[in-house]
Amino acid sequence: MGVVRPFRLRPVGPHSRQSETEVNLMAHAFFGGVHPKDMKAMSCDKAIEVFPAPKQVVIPMSQHIGAPCKPLVKKGDTVTVGQKIGDNAGMCVPVHASVSGTVLAVEPRPYTGGTDVMSVVIENDFQDTLCPEIAPRQSIESLSSDELTGIIHEAGIAGMGGAQFPTHVKISSGIGKVDTIIVNSAECEPYITADDRLMREMPEKVIAGLNVIKKIFGLDKAYIGIEDNKPQAAAALNAAKSDADGIEVCVLHTRYPQGAEKQLIQAVTDRQVPPGGLPASVGCAVFNVATVKAVYDAVYLGMPLVKRVVTVTGSAMKDTRNYMTPIGTPFQALVDAAGGFATDPYKVLTGGPMMGIAQHTLTVPVIKGTNAVTCFSQQDNIEVANPHCIRCGKCVGVCPMHLMPLMMFRSERKGDVENLDALHILDCIECGSCAYTCPAGIHLVQSFKIAKQKLKDAQAAAKA
Ligand code: SF4
Ligand code: SF4
Hints:
- Helix content is 27%, strand content 19%.
- The protein is of the alpha/beta class.
- It folds into four domains: 40-46 and 145-301, 3-Layer(aba) Sandwich (Rossmann fold), CATH 3.40.50; 56-124, CATH 2.40.50; 306-380, Ubiquitin-like (UB roll); 394-463, no CATH class.
- The two termini are 40 Å apart.
- The model is unreliable at 1-25 (pLDDT under 50).
- The chain binds iron/sulfur cluster (2 copies).
- One iron/sulfur cluster (SF4) binds next to helix 9 and helix 10.
């Protein structure tokens, strides 16, 4: 497998799957974007299967943006499913055991982000003993906004679309500013079908979770933004909601990166989040659809976030799957359960080909933000030796953030930090549209990640 860096998807023509839905097709469009072949047919018809319990889970103490958790257990302790095993003060969400068993170790372990992080390793006793504190609620009518937000916090919910921002912080910081709630059901990354299957199979839980969020914000209306390559999911959501829910399913023309927060807001509401601004600045709050389902689990079932749907897919796989996977399951166990590799993988990514991160080991675990394990064979290797910019400008035309990728790349190469700032490189959402369209095969996103870090370091040094 290769080094840790974004994967470049082979450019192809527009996606071939046509919309079959008759529900409301939204007209708003964001600037730029690309049309990679979605490749979702590889796994979109694979129903969610309960993943065979792994022998061991490795649960990192940092699965969210903010302060890492401190372990609350030690080697030799016994734990139950849903038991809190890590927490901290400040901007932090707790982590919970996803299996019952014995703590084998509390130590740094490899993580999908490319570093080692403190983790709790649990040996599964296969008893599925539930934490005694977990109990369903018959009614939530009497619960206040603060109480519901507290339940979401205690359940350890952080953005499950990959951003991993603490959900209770997004809610509490948005109350009073937000007039529009949007559920991000776009799932615009090629290959990934985890959210598609979740919406098809559990639409009533998504609607119930969204009603909880509406109640917290005190709003009567909400939107679900979904692309037109998921007609069955859109139909399932429409069938699951009632008029009284005040929920509108907005079907959007398929275009990458529709699922980026700012682009989705524009597509659904025609509001534009200013550069450097947050969705709340235009009255919006966006929640990933898996996060909304996790809110349902927490509020109605009393169950913290201990499992999620993960798509296992890619050209290197013998078969593909959508698994309901305990948090902490090693990637290797997922690959093995799906039938193993058909051929030696060229790259294994966490996530999809546009924004996914290549992994150097399959011992890394599924975390709250892991929506897919995508494994590519050598046939997908389109690396170009010594790529050179031919100044075609294609990257500028597809950048949804109105940036100048070719100039950003040149400035990064020259180490011109001042110019990187002037080019607003911190607005780059690392969507990979520029790299996808670049005929020279330049690793633009990799360059921008490095450039952003250089700029942040320089700004921190200047401040100090
Ligand atoms: S698309 Fe690639 S080759 Fe064309 S201007 Fe941008 S960086 Fe250069
Ligand atoms: S410059 Fe950043 S935001 Fe623009 S297309 Fe490239 S990766 Fe996406």
